[in-house]
Amino acid sequence: MTEPITYASAGVDVEAGDRAVELMKASVRRATRPEVLGGLGGFAGMFDASALAGMTRPVLATSTDGVGTKVAIAQALDRHDTIGFDLVGMVVDDIVVCGAEPLFMTDYIATGRVVPERVAAIVSGIAAACEQARVALVGGETAEHPGLLEPDEYDVAGAATGVVEYADVLGPDRVRPGDVVLALGSSGLHSNGYSLVRRVVASAGWQLDRHVEDFGQTLGEELLTPTRVYAADLLDLVRTDGIDVHALSHVTGGGLAANLARVLPQGVLARLDRSTWTPPAVFSTIGALGQVPRADLERTLNMGVGFVAMLPAEQVDAATRELSSRGIPAWVLGEVEELEGATPEAGVEIVHGAKGVDGGAVQVVGDHPA
Question: Do you know which InterPro entries this protein is assigned to (predicted)?
Answer without folding.
Answer: PurM-like_C_dom (IPR010918), PurM-like_C_sf (IPR036676), PurM-like_N (IPR016188), PurM-like_N_sf (IPR036921), PurM_cligase (IPR004733)
